[in-house]
Each structure stands twice: as structure tokens, then as C-alpha cells.
Amino acid sequence: MSGRAGRRGIDDRGICILMVDEKLEPPTAKMMLKGSADSLNSAFHLSYNMLLNQMRCEDGDPENLLRNSFYQFQADRAIPDLEKQVKVLEEERDSMIIEEEDNLKNYYDLIQQYKSLKKDVCDIVFSPKYCLPFLQAGRIVCLQCTGINESSPSFSIEDKVTWGVIINFDRVKSFSEDDASRKPEDSNYTVDVLTRCVVSRDGIAKKNIKIVPLKESGEPLVVSVSISEITSLSSARLYLSKDLLPLEVRENTLKKVLEILSRNPTGLPLDPEGDMKIQSNSYKKAVRRIEALEHLFEKHEIANLPLSSKNSKYVTSDDVVELKGKVACEISSADELTLTELMFNGVLKDIKVEEMISLLSCFVWQEKLQDAAKPREELDLLFSQLQDTARRVAKLQLECKVQIDVENFVSSFRPDIMEAVYAWAKGSKFYEIMEITQVFEGSLIRAIRRLEEVLQQLIQAAKSIGETELEAKFEEAVSKIKRDIVFAASLYL
């Protein structure tokens, strides 16, 4: 093939002479004459060298250079196709129907909050100030496996971890600061750990080391990890051989670790407060929130079977009142179904008396306050649990063809006086609790009196099913709130 396609801007057409000197198949000849041309993609790359030389020139404009390049032209031309692809994907996403989507989102948000709190706790526990004295050679440690995709959504609160043995730890030298004047607790450290690894090679020289669980295939290697990759320190220590170069010695060391774990699956972790003497308020606050979230996980719909007519029956198929029904029969001053479910789920048994009184105030308070203050974290978590239970009860009624607005039912439980009632149960004076709430005195007194009435009914409910522990707890709650001016027979006395 020879010729020219014409000169740009001068010729309207060009001439090309094709001389075939050998036999061609028809499809091949058709492809040569009428086939599409090879795609031409820009390989333009704005290097640092080009950028610096542009900046040295007086009239240099790197942005203009990039803007007028063939690369940018192709990128701009691809925008309409990309927008179409985005539109198609959005339509596909919107057409998806996910069962229990709200519950899944709520559960996932709880998991993310849980992991964030766990990270905060680990940052405190494994700060050099607390953990350096425990990084002795031979101590067994739990550390994260590598190669986990953190960006992919996970519905598990457990991370993939493995175990190893500390060999040594080193201080990371800093070139920007004076290491001699820097305090040890303000420095960064790496820890040499003997653990199971898989080694792979990319190319000739590059070597990738991946930390894997001890029971998986791999070889025992000593790797350097940052303190942040350690998730737990064990109270168990091994006597290490002076020479860890032989493969057999390293294998035997990891076998000893597996033997300890077989007898103690938890790894005998050090107690941060008892052993490591961590007494910071931020640590204690995070631990309390983690415990509250773990309790929520146990009761969450996604983690457990959903409430159904089978496992939430109040009567048998023969119309005989069952245990739950006996409790609900005794409650008339609050929503009996929601309160019964809270009672049978163990919520009222697992919390303190003052917190229980505060939670029950949501059943008797009906007024709507503007800009009401949000209760403290512990009480707010309990209120979230109450809302979840109320939502399950409402959905169950809806499935049974009962006309009910689920969200209106859930919003009927209000936390506006939780803080005030909590303070009253703790023994505060009436004028003190009036300073932390904006409700009228008469409204608050009426609510506390109704709360006492609910507690009396719960005492009878607990007695009817033989729950002596709950009965005593409800009686203690009554004694905490039934006092002073709130229950005075007359304001003139």
C-alpha cells in the first residue's frame, strides 16, 4: 500500500494505491479496506521535569499546556459516555430491593461505631507510655493479618488476627527532630515478631510478606510491625532459643504458641486496668460504650432471629395465656407489649436501677418539648434499644393486619425527661432536677407519679412469673423515686 491521504487543510481527498502480490481471503481484504482504524490514545504525561522547565520560562503555563493537549481532548470527549454509565448504574442501584435495608444500615452503622471505639481503646492501650514495659522478648501477642481490604464493607465485628512471639522492639529514628531530647513515650516503635508468613515475589527483587493465621500454610519468619498492628498482649511468655536462624527452632516456637492457645483460646490477655494500670477517663468511657454496643449487637434483629408470631406469642393456639401474656396482663399504665419485650429480652435486668428508672420514664412522658437536651451516652444507647424494640413490636402488629403507623408509634416514646428522672433516682433535690430540664414542675411530678404506678404494676408482673430478682429490683426503684415533695399529700404540709 502506498500513497498519501492528502494534505491537511489543502486537499479534499487523497489517493492510495493498493498492490496485492499474494492471495488474500475475502474477510482479510474487507478488513483492510473497510475496517476501523486502530484507536489512537494519548500517552501524554506531564512529568516533573517538564513542569519545572515550564515554570522556569517566563511565558510558561503548565495548565495551558495540559488543557490544550490531546490527552485532555480525549478525556473531555469521554465525559458524555461516563455520564451515561453513571446514570445506568444509578438506575440499577435504585431498582435493587434489599430486604430489611433499614435494619442492615443500622447494624452496619453500629459495627462502624464499634470498630472506631475499639481503635480508640487500642490507641490508648498500645501507646508507648503503657505498653513499652510489656514488650519483653518471648511475650505472646495477637496481631492483625495483612492483606485485608479495609475499604470493603464488613458485617463482622471480629477482625482477622493471628498470634506471634515478640523477639525485640526498636525505636524509630526521626531525622527531623532531635532524638536525644525526645521522651520515650513520645517516640514511635516497631516490634520484631515471630509469626507465620507467606512470601511471594514480584519480579526479580521485590518480595512481599503476608502475615497469615498460625494454622495456615507458610513459613515462620521474624517480621517488623508497628505497635498499632498489635491488638492484644498476652500474660504468657515463652523462653526463646538464643539462635532462631534454624527453621526447626522457629517452627517449634510457633508450636508452643499453638499449644498455649489450645488450652486458653483467649490467649490470656493482659488486663489494661489491673495489669497495665491504665486509669484514663477516655479509656474507661470508650470501654463503657463498647460494652453497651456489644449488648445492642446481642439484641439486634440482624444478629438474631426477627421477632415473629412464633417466638413472641402471648397465648397458645388453644388460647391459653403464656408467660409473656401473664406479664402483659399486669401492665395497664404503659405500652404492655413493648415493656414485656424489654423485660423478656433481659434489658431491664442487665442495667442499673437508676438507668432502668430513666428508661421507663419514656413510657409515661407524652408531651413534646422543643429543643430538648439529648441524654448522656449511656442513656441514649438504652433509648436506642427501646426504639428498636418498639419498631419490632409495631412491625409485628402491622404484619398481623393491625392498623398502626410504625414511625409514629416509635416516636411516641420520648427521652425528654430521662436526665431529670435519672438525677431524681440518684437522690438529687427537686429544685436541682428542675435546673436541668425545661418542663413545668406539675408535668414532671405527674410523670414521676405515673412512673411509680408503672413500677408497681411491674412488681406484680414479676411476682406472677416468679422473677424474684426483678421483683426486688422494681421495689428498689420505687423506694428511690417515692420521696419528698413529689409524693407529698399536700403542698401545704
Notable features of this structure?
six-stranded antiparallel sheet, ATP-binding, alpha+beta, hydrolase activity, single chain, Beta-barrel_MTR4, Sec63 N-terminal domain-like fold, RNA-DNA_Helicase, Elongation Factor Tu (Ef-tu), domain 3, extended, 493 residues, two-stranded antiparallel ribbon, 8 strands, 19 helices
Report the portion of residues in β strands.
5-15%
In DSSP terms (H or I, runs of 4 or more residues), the helix count works out at 19
CATH class of the largest domain: Mainly Alpha
Kindly state the mean pLDDT as a whole number?
A: 81
- List the helices and strands in order: EEHHHHHHHEEEEEEHHHHHHHHHHHH
Radius of gyration: 35 Å
How much helicity do the residues have? 40-55%
Largest sheet: 6 strands, antiparallel
Shape: extended
Low-confidence stretches: 305-311
Structural class: alpha+beta
Oligomer: single chain
Q: How many β-strands, per DSSP? A: 8
GO molecular function: ATP binding; helicase activity; hydrolase activity
Organism: Hevea brasiliensis
Keywords: ATP-binding, Helicase, Hydrolase, Nucleotide-binding
GO cellular component, one term: nucleus
Describe this structure in words.
This protein is an alpha+beta fold and 493 residues long. The protein has three domains: 56-95, no CATH class; 127-175 and 182-270, Elongation Factor Tu (Ef-tu), domain 3 (Beta Barrel); 305-487, Sec63 N-terminal domain-like fold (Orthogonal Bundle), CATH 1.10.3380.30. It has helices spanning 26-34, 48-56, 62-67, 70-77, 79-95, 101-125, 128-131, 247-263, 281-299, 323-330, 336-344, 347-350, 353-364, 377-399, 406-411, 418-425, 430-434, 441-464, 468-481, and strands at 2-4, 15-17, 139-144, 161-171, 189-202, 206-211, 219-226, 230-237. The strands form two sheets. Strands 3, 4, 5, 6, 7 and 8 form a six-stranded antiparallel beta sheet that branches. Strands 1-2 form a two-stranded antiparallel sheet. The termini are far apart. Mean pLDDT is 81; it is low at 305-311.
